Amino acid sequence: MSVAFRRDSDEEHLEPRFELPIPPGPNLVTAAGPALIAARIAALEAEIAAAADPEPLRRTLRYWHTRAATAEVAGAPADGTAGIATRVRFRLAGRERQVAIVGHDEADGDTRIAYAAPLARALIGLEAGDLADFQGRADAIEILSVEPL
Description:
By secondary structure, this protein is α/β, with parallel strands linked by helices. It has 2 domains: 26-73; 86-148, Roll (Chitinase A, domain 3), CATH 3.10.50.30. Helix content is 30%, strand content 27%. The chain is built from 4 helices and 7 strands, in the order αβααββββαββ. The chain has helices at 3-6, 33-50, 55-70, 118-123, and strands at 27-29, 71-73, 86-92, 95-102, 112-114, 131-134, 137-148. Strands 5-4-3-7-6 form a 5-stranded mixed beta sheet. Strands 1-2 form a two-stranded parallel sheet. The chain starts with a helix and ends with a strand.
């Protein structure tokens, strides 16, 4: 007998839906991180209550509950070096820029970057006046200032 005649539903052969991937390493966040995560959880719970098919939203909610449970608040380094929870002003390729180094879930990719991002890794541990290599170029970054968030 053909499989087509034995199958109860088409759902049987669909790929399983896996959980959302959790970034590797510790879940470091700034002091504002737990409140941001709590706000996302509250918004998702409201969406689930109003949704016709809440299952995809439940998967996202499980991700945020995991992130809330594992969040570790990290303060800015006391010695004035760049690190998580700091705002760094620097010059790269002749252009002045400013970024805040934050946790994965707080990053927006433009002015707030995750501490594991390549640019953040190049900045962490530096202080005003330091030069750093970046993208294979020696002394590509000049640190202008570092301040806590």
